[in-house]
Amino acid sequence: MQHKELVDTLSKSLGRSKSDINKLLEALSNVVIERCSELDSISVPRFGTFEAVKHNESVEVDNETGKRTLVPPRVEVQFCASNILKKKLNQP
C-alpha cells in the first residue's frame, strides 16, 4: 500500500479529511524518529514495537585477504510485531 492509499483508507475509516490524516501520519513519524534517536522504544497496541538498537564499533576481517576493517557504531531500528498481528498474519 502506498502513502496515498493509506491516507485514503484512513480518511474514509475515521471520517477525517486527508489533510488531517497527513498531519497525523507526519506527527507519528516524527515521534518515532525522535524517540528512536534517543534509543527509546515505541509500543503501538495491537500492532507492535519499534525499538532502537545500538551496535558498537567492531573490527571485521576479510577471510580472503586477512585485511582488518573498522566498522563504525550505528543505530538500527527493529520492529517486533505484536502477538495479535502475528496471529492475524498467520491465519489460513
Could you provide a short overview of the structure?
The protein has helices at residues 3-14, 18-37, 83-89, and strands spanning 41-44, 48-55, 58-61, 68-71, 74-81. With 92 residues, the chain is α+β, with helices and mostly antiparallel strands.
Strand order of the largest sheet: 1-2-5
**Portion in helices:** 40-55%
The number of strands is: 5
Number of helices: 3
Decide which structural class fits the backbone.
Answer: alpha+beta
Strand content: 25-35%
- Globally, the shape reads elongated
Whole-angstrom Rg: 19 Å
Describe the structure.
With 92 residues, this protein is of the alpha+beta class. The chain contains three helices and five strands; from the N terminus they run H-H-E-E-E-E-E-H. The chain has helices spanning 3-14, 18-37, 83-89, and strands spanning 41-44, 48-55, 58-61, 68-71, 74-81. A three-stranded antiparallel beta sheet has the order 1-2-5. The longest helix is centred in the first third of the chain and has 20 residues, at 18-37. The radius of gyration is 19 Å and the shape is elongated. It starts with a helix and ends with a helix.
